[in-house]
């Protein structure tokens, strides 16, 4: 029976025999907490298979004792969109998150859709830019998350690492998740030190070419944030001295020297970037990937240090440091998993998985902190590790993936491992719940293979809807080579297609009264798009105007592309490039995805109790959870 409330003898008698009594009936539910665990990207097909095989005993028990169902996801089924549905109970037309990226119609450039920092005005004085005021930091998600509604009605909420919670919101305690930048202001820029000129980073990282002395010594630098007061001086730097042997490296950085073994992560390494009038504290982790004579060293993005946060990482503001004092330093970047570095072969598989173990343990410690404090009626924690491992290792599971045959044993075991880890976390949490607590476990979407990368902008060019300038370099991102005077449509983001509309786009040519006809023309053609083997590339396409009524609809794509299973927009498409091929085999480690037709990738929902009806979709969770959360003290 676990923690479910035992019926008292009187209540049992009343229930069985209809015995009335003079006392008022007992409350339907004694005060207990609502504890919500999110496992990003947990897929129903895999979950059901592994429950049946006995690999996930805790999930199987929860299903038996309570309730299990598929949870329909958002359209498109992307994490920031789906978790915004979850938080606010609204759809994208109202909460404003349509994709990881949103396009600026004035420039056709993609912007990060989740959070926005506007620097303060500054006073330019002798080359020093002195900020006037604080600048503003804004979560671009609109609507009110249910934990805030709960908190405002006296129900206390502890919320950890939920995507799209930056800056943090004023609840009992919050640690922000996806949206928190690194010290460079990016979503994660790593550094890769190498002596090989062929190493390159397409995105997400910077390659630093090392000049090594004969004794294995290297004098180089770690680039930090921009000089805050003198932007013309470029970035602040910290000296980095390395001495490589075949199996270890002696690192001197920020006044500390330590030896690292090959394939071993360092502990957090505090780094402070001095700018004369002060310094900016951050921290990195390092990993040696190869030794002398051709050494390689990986340095993580520079995280804000939770001990001395220079970014708003938590609510209350000093909670980040309090937590770090109890559990040690932890990853603070919103999306810390090293997917880009591994995709570009700048980090090894074991390094990636060791890092996942660390972030998982950190997440457990945060959750523990709130469960121990036992002062919140609502506790919400999202674990994203299930999603990240599924992205990077799907090729190990999917026997028809182009990279399956060359997948390592580690790659083949990674997804079963992370699901079993999720099961272990669930078991740990269940042990600590009190009899009246309620447990809800959900995912934001499921998963599918990503075998073929569709260059949607190339498809638009071949069909005459997008035009490049003569002699264009086709792999230029950001539509650098597009001739807008001859272009009627363009693709940007992972599921979005936009018309080049007059009075909206800066160089729009499609008249507003031609919009509907062009959209139907595009939809018919998309439905006919076939891969070389005859498979339909697009399962369904959706009209933005139908999906997204609401005050934020100006940011919506005109069409949302629901790819078939196995397909996804290419990375180049998402950033506005159009390589020569129409569709290509996906040859990168990032081999599973979910940005397809949402019907194909529902999430999962488990509850420790039996709800009156099935939950109709992820946007219905906000109200459902708010209603189940008991009143706070004094109510
Ligand atoms: Zn994902």
Automatic annotation (TrEMBL):
Matching Gene3D superfamilies: Alkaline Phosphatase, subunit A
Matching InterPro entries: Alkaline_phosphatase_core_sf (IPR017850), Phosphodiest/P_Trfase (IPR002591)
Pfam families, per the entry: Phosphodiest
Top-rank taxon, per record: Bacteria
Protein name: Alkaline phosphatase family protein
Organism: Pseudomarimonas arenosa
């Amino acid at each position: 029976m676990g923690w479910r409330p035992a019926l008292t003898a009187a209540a049992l008698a009343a229930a069985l025999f209809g015995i009335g009594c003079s006392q008022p009936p007992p409350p339907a539910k004694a005060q207990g907490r609502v504890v919500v665990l999110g496992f990003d990207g947990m897929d129903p097909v895999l979950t059901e298979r592994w429950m049946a095989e006995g690999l996930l005993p805790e999930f199987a028990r929860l299903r038996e004792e309570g309730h299990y169902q598929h949870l329909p996801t958002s359209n498109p089924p992307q994490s920031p969109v789906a978790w915004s549905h979850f938080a606010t109970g609204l759809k994208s037309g109202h909460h404003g998150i349509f994709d990881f990226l949103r396009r600026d119609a004035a420039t056709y450039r993609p912007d990060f859709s989740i959070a926005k920092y506007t620097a303060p005005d500054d006073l330019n004085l002798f080359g020093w830019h002195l900020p006037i005021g604080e600048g503003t930091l804004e979560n671009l998600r609109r609507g009110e998350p249910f934990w805030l509604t709960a908190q405002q009605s006296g129900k206390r909420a502890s919320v950890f690492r939920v995507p799209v919670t930056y800056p943090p919101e004023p609840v009992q305690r919050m640690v922000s998740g996806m949206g928190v930048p690194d010290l460079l202001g990016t979503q994660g820029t790593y550094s890769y030190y190498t002596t090989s000129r062929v190493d390159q980073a397409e995105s997400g990282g910077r390659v630093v070419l090392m000049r090594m002395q004969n004794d294995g010594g290297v004098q180089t630098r770690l680039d930090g944030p921009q000089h805050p007061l003198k932007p013309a001086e470029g970035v602040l730097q910290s000296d980095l001295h390395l001495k490589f042997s075949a199996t270890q490296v002696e690192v001197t950085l920020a006044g500390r020297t330590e030896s690292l073994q090959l394939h071993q992560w360092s502990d957090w390494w505090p780094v402070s970037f001095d700018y004369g009038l002060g310094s900016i504290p951050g921290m990195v982790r390092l990993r040696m990937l190869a030794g002398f004579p051709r050494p390689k060293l990986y340095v993580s993005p520079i995280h804000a240090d939770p001990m001395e946060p220079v970014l708003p990482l938590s609510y209350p503001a000093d909670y980040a440091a309090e937590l770090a004092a109890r559990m040690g330093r932890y990853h603070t970047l919103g999306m810390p998993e090293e997917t880009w570095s591994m995709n570009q072969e700048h980090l090894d598989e074991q390094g990636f998985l060791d890092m996942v173990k660390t972030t998982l343990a950190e997440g457990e410690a945060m959750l523990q902190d709130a469960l121990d404090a036992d002062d919140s009626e609502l506790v919400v924690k999202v674990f994203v590790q299930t999603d990240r491992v599924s992205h990077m290792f799907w090729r190990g599971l999917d026997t028809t993936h182009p990279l399956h045959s060359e997948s390592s044993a580690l790659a083949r075991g990674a997804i079963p491992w992370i699901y079993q880890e999720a099961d272990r976390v669930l078991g740990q949490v269940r042990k600590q719940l009190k009899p009246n607590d309620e447990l809800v476990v959900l995912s934001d979407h499921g998963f599918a293979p990503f075998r073929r990368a569709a260059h949607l902008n190339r498809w638009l060019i071949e069909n005459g809807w997008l035009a490049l300038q003569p002699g264009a370099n086709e792999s230029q991102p950001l539509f650098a080579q597009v001739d807008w005077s001859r272009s009627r449509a363009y693709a940007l983001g992972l599921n979005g297609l936009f018309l080049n509309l007059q009075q909206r786009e800066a160089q729009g040519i499609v008249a507003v009264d031609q919009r509907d006809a062009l959209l139907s023309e595009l939809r018919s053609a998309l439905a006919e798009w076939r891969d070389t083997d005859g498979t339909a590339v697009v399962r369904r396409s959706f009209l933005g105007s139908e999906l997204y009524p609401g005050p934020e609809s100006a940011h919506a794509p005109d069409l949302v592309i629901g790819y078939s299973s196995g397909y996804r927009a290419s990375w180049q498409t998402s950033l506005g490039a159009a390589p020569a091929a129409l569709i290509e085999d996906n040859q990168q480690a990032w081999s599973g995805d979910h940005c397809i037709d949402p019907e194909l990738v529902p999430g999962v929902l488990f509850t420790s109790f039996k709800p009156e009806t099935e939950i109709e979709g992820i946007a219905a969770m906000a109200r459902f959870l708010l209603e189940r959360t008991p009143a706070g003290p004094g109510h």
